[in-house]
TrEMBL record:
InterPro entries: AstE_AspA_cat, Peptidase_M14
Keywords for the protein's UniProt record, in alphabetical order: Hydrolase, Metal-binding, Zinc
Family: Belongs to the peptidase M14 family.
GO biological process: proteolysis
Name recorded for this polypeptide: Peptidase M14 domain-containing protein
Any GO molecular function: metallocarboxypeptidase activity
Span of domain Peptidase M14: 30-306
Amino acid sequence: MHPPETYPIGTPGQPWGATERAAWRARQARQRSYADDVLLAIDRLRDAFDVQQYGTLDVGDDGRFPLYALRSRDWREDLPSALVTGGIHGYETSGVHGALQFARQHAKDYAGRLNLLIVPCVSPWAYERIQRWNAEAIDPNRSFGPDGQAAESAALKQLVAPLRDRFLVHMDLHETTDSDESEFRPAKAARDGQAFEPGEIPDGFYTVGDTEDPQPAFQQAIIAAVAKVTHIAPADAKGEIIGSPVVAHGVINYPCRELGLCASVTTARFRSTTEVYPDSPRATPAQCNDAQVAAVRAALDFALAR
């Protein structure tokens, strides 16, 4: 699918105002259920975790969404802690279901070794609409800086704040999809009054480290584990993935704090943003979830061995 030459909302070259944002929101139809897909899964984990409601997302006529985190029942102050986040972008399905699958299948393996805080779906309105932005046409994963405006990001920041400097690991689970190029990047260009410049979607899994503290051995441990589950994205002809230089097989770096990314919400020594490619003919939804789980497990095992 090719992006439209002109996005159907707004005037080319002019940033959106309230009218355009409202028109965009009116186009966003509910396509799946947060209650059925996520809340029921969380309920089934109440015997294994302390389930904490850390906020409520009020989206007016579209409803109110309770926000939940899973917290190790045997939380100990003398143990290192790890944060796992999914669904910062609601359309990135394996981020949500990979986090839940890890909680269900493998969290018990770290009991007595590591405290876990798992937030499987940060953006439930966007999850239901298979959308990148929140209801205000704001990207939650550019809203973790001091000027961030996304309510979803603010709620997560408040949850994490008391523990911010105590995490050893933070894994933020994402996807790069074909719709990034066909819908979301054209929408962003239109919203910001800019010209859309086509890019290239990488075929395969990759990770994003932090330019300020990239931890290359950590990133490569994740790549090695995921390569057993699904294929790793190669560099393009420019030696890049989505416009950033490839610094090692399947790894690029972003300035996380400068961009207001979720990966900057803690000061964890080991931080990585995963990027699964669900649209590949070489990957199934189950493989995508398994890749997220493999990434989390590799990250935790690497950190605990140091």
